[in-house]
Design goal:
2 domains, 6 strands, 46% helix, 3-stranded antiparallel beta sheet, alpha+beta, Arc Repressor Mutant, subunit A
């Protein structure tokens, strides 16, 4: 005997529904695409050289990932030349939007280290070198010249510089190739634009030239 057509669709259990990843899942993205979206929100950068599988997934699904971020008032930036993707908070003048991404500014030592790294990177690239490297001792000597000359605590200043270096290693701007020897990555250009570098260098020159 044929069952009457009730007009309802038979329910499908979660185990038989390939699109549902967990109970009550209303999402439409595949698991790998969701992971990339989460990593973009968690990390400062997604790098092609370090996260090759996620980078491929990003490029294959760039439009939908960008759309999901836009829903949060966040912009996706994919820099193919440098092999890096990152996010930016959207702050349109005509809209009052909630701020999702909080600024995590660099402190004094981190900023000074960044300026030196960016300068070295720009100089080496200008001479045709494909990479730029620095030693932690070189960083200390340069950065400490901008510290307060009245501060006689050399050990504390050196520790500030080394802490700054560790943050930049964590963020991927530096890669330690051997003890105390670091390669500067192209991410330094993303963090510190040419315009911003010029502004900071001018500020440092004026500070050094100011009478004591």
């Amino acid at each position: 005997m044929t069952e009457p057509d009730t007009g309802f669709i038979d329910p499908i259990s979660m185990e038989d529904d390939p699109a549902e990843l967990f109970a009550g899942d209303a999402g439409t993205l595949d698991a790998e695409v969701r992971r990339v979206l989460v990593q973009l929100l968690r990390r400062k950068f997604l790098r092609a050289d370090k996260h090759s599988a996620q980078w491929r997934t990003l490029l294959e699904n760039q439009q939908i990932i960008a759309s999901r971020l836009n829903d949060l008032f966040v912009r996706l930036v994919v820099d193919h030349d440098r092999g890096v993707a990152y996010k930016e908070q959207v702050r349109p003048a005509e809209l009052d939007v909630p701020i999702l991404l909080k600024d995590d500014p660099y402190n004094r030592a981190e900023t000074l280290v960044l300026v030196h790294l960016r300068t070295v990177f720009q100089r080496e690239r200008g001479t045709g070198e494909t990479s730029a490297r620095v030693d932690v001792e070189e960083l200390e000597q340069t950065v400490l010249t901008y510290f307060d000359p009245e501060d006689r605590n050399l050990a504390r200043g050196q520790q500030e510089v080394r802490n700054a270096v560790q943050r930049l290693v964590t963020e991927g701007l530096l890669v330690e190739e051997s003890a105390g020897r670091y390669r500067i990555t192209p991410l330094v250009e993303v963090v510190l634009s040419t315009t911003k570098l010029a502004e900071l260098e001018q500020w440092l020159r004026e500070r050094n030239e100011a009478p004591a």
